[in-house]
Amino acid sequence: MSTEENPAAAPRSLAEALRGRDDVSLAALLRSRPDLITPVPTDLTQLATRAGTRASVVRALERLDRFTLQTAQALAIASEPATYDELLGLMAGDDGDPAVSAALPHALGTLREQALVWGGDGRLRLVRTARELLAPSPQHPSPTGLGPTVREAGAGISPGRVQEILATAGLPSTHDSVSALDALTGLFDDPERMSALLDQAPSESVEVLERLVWGPPYGQVTADPAPRLRWLLDRGLLLPTAPGTVVLPREVALRLRAGRAHRTTEPVPPPVEAAAAHRPQTVDATAAGQAYTALATVEELLKDWHEGGPGVLRAGGLSVRDLKRTAVALDVPEPVAAFWVELAYAAGLLASDGEADERYAATPAYDEWLERPAGERWARLATAWLAATRTPGLVGERDAKDRTLSALGPGLDRSSAPEVRHRVLALLAGLPEGAAPDAGSVLARLRWERPPRADRTGGGHGGGTSSPYARRTPAHPAEQARGAAARAGGSGVPGYPADGASAAGGDDDLRSRLARWTLAEAEMLGVTGRGALSSHGRALIGAPPAPRHADPRTESTGPGDKLPVHHRRAPAPSALSPAGQATAAAAAARLLDPLLPEPLDHVLLQADLTAVAPGPLERPLADMLGVLADVESKGGATVYRFTPASVRRALDAGRSAADLHAFLAAHSRTPVPQPLAYLVDDVARRHGHLRVGAASSYVRCDDDAVLNEILADKRAAGLGLRRLAPTVLAARTDPAALLEGLRAMGFAPAAESAEGDVLIARADAYRTPPRTPPEPVPDGPPVPDDTLLAAAIRAVRAGDLASTAPRKPVGGAAGGVGPGELPRTSAADTLATLQAAVLTNGTLWIGYVNAEGAASQRVIAPIRVEGGFVTAYDHTADEVRAYPLHRITGVAELAE
């Protein structure tokens, strides 16, 4: 690649480099760094300034892949400006690396696109803020493991000592320290002279250099260094930086490394390998079974809370005790129960009721959700999971204030969660159809695409062990390992901790944990089956059809069966707009629907007061049977048990004995057993014989002997009963407590209204007010769409034209207006110039102050001047506007 470049034509600043870009290049910059467009900058100079701020540069660096980040780190230690050949030498070494040579143009192009590097191949410049962040220093070591240059390290050495080093190294003396350090640098940069110098070094001294060459480059020495260290110090191969501390100069380290800035470069992303291969039909069938289980689990959760779920903690969220109860009810581990609770909350099916005694319950959207086809219901859950920033895997851990994170509580949002979920599923989509990934290769790929913080700040470089003659300085706190060991035990769900504790060790990072949780949650939700992405999961993320295996008969034989699949980096599906996501969800639902079992319209009644449902039931049948009987066991077939309490529950819901007999006869493939018919008739005969209402509350019955029996029962003492009439008893307790007390005594009372009518108690009567699902917490500003990008670029271009257009001197002055200054002319001169421009169709540069007092520069083409306003086409805003004359500070004609 040519490095020759005309210096006169080279940009002198980042702003000039941005002015040389076309609209497509500017759009790519704003799309990759959306924080630069919030708010829209007034011109390209402000855009360049914003692109160089520390917060923006840090965000951009955090989104670079490992090789591109290594390229930026190499530029941070190169000369400024650097040439492409110098950068290639730092990345590929003196011997060259074909893979690095092939990948470097793309990495450099990415840095240029994101405005982290500017200038041509002959004058490459890293943005100053990025250089300050990536350049090595004692306080912030570089991942390259390099130290300061000879000039930087020798700045504090006395001139006499510098001349002694020159003489010992065999170089002629100079007149000053600057030229002496330059001569020493030239020695270390010359491969032949450097090799000759090292050939003279004792083997012990060479061993010291080998221990420091890959970093950290700092070591500690005593006041009287050993001969092997003295030999290095006398020739400048080690330079003192502080009392008792020496450093290996950057030039020496690069010579010893054969020119490489990094011990290991990674120009090619690690492939995602398949751990096993399955038939696509097997994957889809398994995923469909998991999807059906997910729907059933969410329904069971909200049915369990149908009369109002557990209370809300004062700080928000679900208590540990309530989470345990929910886990027992769902027959799952607590971390998995937290996942289902959070999923229902993210989908808008669950919320708090907002009452004084706040508790959780289903929302009205849950009833609408139940009426939808199964595929649509699953798509709603899966779409909510993909976009949610709430992370149930964190439940049970502690926040920065040492408070336990609870399900449905605050502190669970992680803004990077949606991006990680999409990326993990995209990597699975790049595998052949039916291939289940090796989790380790997925994590390695994610670490390459977004290196952990230790790799960006210097905690990831290697080095030798310390020695008695060159002890390393203590590691910087940023290099210390973080985190604690995971708690013991297993939840039965890969990727989930046993009790909500952290699953990450000290070397792990949040993205890796999110990736493991994604693989586990996708399997539970039915997005994947047997670890492989299903066809409806592929449609959910808008991925293209998967490649096929070369041998479609390949099938895994066990968990140890490994099938390596090396492939090129699969392009991630582009981010879907809300309309695109809705289309993808509908497509996924259409693919899933045929795979789900058809609902049945019958059960099998048995003589032991049970009913067997051999599969999923139709919605009306399942709802009615859920009221009439209790679920005894679940699995491939669901077993329901009829009890007096369950039959009474159906009668409380407004059904009569005849209705129940007709229902059982219509939906049973076997004759209604006689014990079940007797049970219904017996409970119905006694149901409603007693009536309970509000006095505070009362009991009335036509049979006064029954009331006498109640009064004589010792268990009724806590109800505060007293007789008002032969057939009426009054109570101090409320009607609900009175109902429960009488039922505990073996009676079957019915509630009645103030008018004396029997109240119908619906099992699903309690709902929260309408609630919207929780909004995801964004990871920075959203990526702008094409319309916003086009408008922003047009505004920036127009503003830049207004600020950089050449102008004639204002008011006859010899010089023009300085940069950033507004033109100043008298009111008469302003009016005359504007009127003249109307006649000549001229273009003017004006200074304008709006009603809020904000000053700006604009380029306008006046159309007419009347009534104290000038109507003109504003090139800055690309529209016709009217400006009050009294707010125009001055005008100037644009130069030819």
UniProtKB/TrEMBL annotation:
The keyword Endoplasmic reticulum does not apply. Residues 830-891 form the WYL domain. Residues 135-154, 450-507, 536-576 are annotated as: Disordered. InterPro entries: WYL_dom, XPB/Ssl2_N. Residues 603-725 form the Helicase XPB/Ssl2 N-terminal domain. GO terms for molecular function: helicase activity. Keywords: ATP-binding, Helicase, Hydrolase, Nucleotide-binding. It comes from the Bacteria. PROSITE patterns: WYL. This is Helicase-associated domain-containing protein.
